[in-house]
Specification:
Lipocalin; 5 helices; 215 residues
C-alpha cells in the first residue's frame, strides 16, 4: 500500500466521523472529494534528450528531500553504479567510498584504487584522488538510492558532462538512464504528495478537535 493511498484513507476516516455535524461546513465530506481528486492527478515528468537536462529540471524539486555528505551512513561502503546517457556506454562501473578513505572503481570487474575525503563537512564538497589526479566535486543530490555529484567549475563550457551520476547497484542495476530519472521522479512525487496529505490530515484533525470541543 502506497503512502498516498494510506494517507487518503486516514483522511477519509476522519471526515466520515464528522458526517453527523451537518451544520459545520468545514467538516463536510465534499472536502475529502476535492482533496482526493487533486492528489490523484498524476504529475508528469517533462521530456528531455540528455541526462544533464533531466537533472537540471528535477534536482531543484528533489534536493530539499536529500541528505548531506557528512551523513556517511547513506553512501559509505555501498556499491554505486555509474549512469550515463551515452548509447555506446556498456561498461559496468561501480564506485565504492570506503570508511578508511579508500576509493574503489570497478570497471567490468577490473578494480582501481584511489582516495576520497570530504573537503569540508559543512560545504558538501568531496575530493577524489585517482591515478595521480585530484578532482573536486560538489554534492548535487544524495539519498538511500541516488548519489549525484557535480565537478567543480563550468564543465559544460569545457564540453564535458555536468553531473557524475550514480545509483545504488541493488536498486538500479537493470535500468537505463531514462528509467533511472523516472524512478527518482516517481519516488519524489509519491513522497512529497504523502507529506502534503499528512499535513492536510493534521489540519483537519485540529479542526475536528475544535468542533468537538464546542459540542
Amino acid at each position: 500500500m502506497s503512502n498516498n493511498y494510506l494517507a487518503i484513507n486516514v483522511l477519509n476516516v476522519i471526515l466520515e466521523k464528522n458526517r453527523r455535524f451537518d451544520n459545520t461546513e468545514i467538516m463536510q465530506p465534499k472536502i475529502f472529494d476535492t482533496i482526493t481528486s487533486a492528489f490523484e492527478r498524476k504529475e508528469e515528468l517533462a521530456y528531455f534528450d540528455k541526462l544533464d537536462d533531466y537533472l537540471d529540471h528535477l534536482l531543484p524539486q528533489v534536493r530539499p528531500w536529500g541528505e548531506d555528505l557528512r551523513e556517511l551512513e547513506f553512501y559509505v561502503g555501498e556499491s554505486w553504479l555509474e549512469v550515463r546517457d551515452d548509447d555506446n556506454f556498456n561498461d559496468i562501473i561501480l564506485h565504492v567510498f570506503q570508511e578508511n578513505g579508500d576509493y574503489l572503481v570497478s570497471t567490468n570487474g577490473t578494480v582501481k584504487k584511489g582516495k576520497w575525503q570530504l573537503l569540508n563537512k559543512d560545504e558538501n564538497k568531496m575530493l577524489i584522488e585517482m591515478g595521480g589526479a585530484s578532482d573536486l566535486y560538489e554534492l548535487a543530490f544524495l539519498d538511500n538510492n541516488y548519489l549525484i555529484l557535480k565537478k567543480h567549475g563550468n564543465q559544460l563550457r569545457l564540453g564535458k558532462k555536468k553531473y557524475f551520476v550514480m545509483g545504488k547497484e541493488s536498486e538500479i542495476y537493470d535500468l537505463v538512464w531514462r528509467e533511472y530519472v523516472e524512478k527518482m521522479f516517481e519516488e519524489y512525487r509519491q513522497g512529497s504528495t504523502a507529506y502534503i496529505i499528512m499535513g492536510i490530515i493534521f489540519l483537519v484533525a485540529v479542526g475536528l478537535a475544535v468542533v468537538l470541543s464546542v459540542f
